[in-house]
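Morning, I've got a small favour to ask if you have a moment. I'm working through a protein record and want to make sense of it properly. The fold is given in discrete form, as structure tokens running alongside the sequence. Can you walk me through what the tokens say about the fold? Thanks so much in advance, here it is:
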Amino acid sequence: AARSPLWTARSLDRHVETLRVPFRPAKDAAKKLGGTLNTAFVTAAADAAANYHLRLGTPVEYLRTSMAISTRTAESGGNAFSLARMLVPTGEMPIDERFVAIHEASLAAREASKSAGLDALAAITSVLPTSLITRLARQQAHTVDFATSNVKGSPVPVYVCGAQLLEVYPIGPLLGVAFNLTLMSYLGSLDMAMHIDTAAVAEPPLLAECLGDAFKRLAKV
């Protein structure tokens, strides 16, 4: 089961919060701490979840998240990926310590995904009916508190009908989690959309504020 004492209810009510932060400070912080930009991203999400619970008087030591792990190879191309679940620390701690803990958990999750044969599983699910895949995904999602996904964007301007896209906020599916935070890097910025089930997260602006604060702390490490 999911671990949050606050994010227990689910509904069809939706809310979206967005955040844009500079790419370079987050990337530099990740490098300084010995990890990747994706680790910084998941750390910020976990830190936001931690402080959301703390500010509402219900601290929680760990939450379970899912993250997309690329399974793309030079031969396969495309955006092949699998989902890995892991526990992330959400107790009170400095953000650099949270980063290190999540970096180690991410490495373990990647190794576990390899040994679990997720590539073979992905091949099997590709021939299953969509309705069955959706039902299985929803059942698994009920064991996860929140989801994250980091989508690589374009390093050059993108145009639609002659007009340049200034910002790009990708909205990921919820599939039974409290919120899905999806990131796309674009033109030197990290554009994020937080897709929220408001039955679970009663105060979306507070969660978004905590996310912004997390990136500010990361930039200062």
Observations:
- Confidence is low (pLDDT under 50) at residues 117-125.
- Strands lie at 14-22, 62-70, 81-89, 146-151, 159-160, 163-164, 179-186, 189-197.
- The helical segments are 23-32, 37-55, 95-115, 118-125, 130-141, 204-219.
- The chain has one domain: 14-169+182-219.
